[in-house]
Amino acid sequence: MTYAKITGWGKCVPPTVLTNAEISNFVETTDEWIVSRTGIEERRVTHVQLSELATLAAKRAIAAAGLQGSDIDLVILCTASGDSLIPNTASAVQRNIGAHQAAAFDSNAACTGFLYGIQMATALIQNGSNQRAVVIGADRLNYFINWADRASAVLFGDGAGAVVLEASTEKSGMIASKLGCDTEKRDILEVQGPGTYVDRFHTSACYNVAFEGPEIFKRAINGMNGACTSALESAGLSGDDIDVIVPHQANLRIIQTLAKKMGVSMDKVMVNIEKYGNTSAASVAIALCEAVEQGRVQPGSNILTAAFGAGLTYAGMVIKW
Ligand code: ACO
Predict the structure, then answer these.
(1) If you measure from the C-alpha of residue 310 to the centroid of ligand 1, how many angstroms do you get, rounded to a whole number?
(2) pLDDT of 104 strictly over 90
(3) Residue 113 burial (CB count, 10 A)
(4) How many domains does the chain have?
(5) Closest to 283 (Cα-Cα) out of 77, 154, 137, 155
(6) What is the pLDDT of residues 270-313, one digit of tens each?
């Protein structure tokens, strides 16, 4: 049996911090409202292109794996905010990291994208098509924000995270997953517009992140809970076998409710939403990197990850470290 072991991880969060207090200078909101409703204290913002964030995260993951860019034969960039519609942004990352022989494509499952990417890379490694993949979750949703709309202005941060997966006979990497898409309400979270291409006809000012928060809140918990239960069942594990849970960081209250519903203590749950806000496809990737950096993940650890995003996509996944 071939597995896709995670051998490297890295993140790139832009250095510019935007605090709740700073946001309250230009829209009617308060630090107290944002912290109590979401758990977010600050987020990172950038004007650099998505490919630059993604490249840095990928380079760090490849270095942590002890590899060169030229060792990588597959680049999957999970994002909803690529540099342009055509060509794909993964090809810029492939070039930047020197993975000249690698296949490269973008994948958009919004905030769930990174877990969809891990599933795809694992399948391609397991069927022998690829040996060493880099999967990147990266987004700069702040590009799409209408900064006069307080509902969305407070929620999102920019960033990127990446992992390297390598073919291995050791039982490790993704061992079970459940991906899905709750399309009944697919229009309750959307960004309409032409894409991130900017020229004299298009500017970022034409965008707006439109969403129905309370409905997403409910569906996020149900979607992630169902997917996690199903992934645990496929892995033959129970919540007690899980060492750390790494959920999508959209709202601290969603994370707490999910943990309660699953009957697991918050001590087991990785939370970093206070520093970064919702970084969309980068969210689970950055949280996973930080869980490793903090020593919460050790060789052999069982990790349960979960995500939910526009579409409405959802995923639950068990990863053995
Ligand atoms: N500051 C102050 N007041 C605000 C703000 C703000 N930034 N934003 C909204 N409000 C007001 C609203 O206008 C409303 O006022 P009203 O009662 O006078 O009409 C009141 O706060 C309550 O608004 P709700 O939208 O009901 O607030 P809620 O408690 O649901 O919190 C939130 C909103 C944080 C978005 C929550 O619904 C949520 O986290 N939803 C799920 C995640 C989500 O939707 N994320 C965005 C999409 S991306 C994703 O993660 C899938």
Answers:
(1) 16
(2) yes
(3) 34
(4) 2
(5) 137
(6) 999 999 999 999 999 999 999 999 999 999 999 999 999 999 99
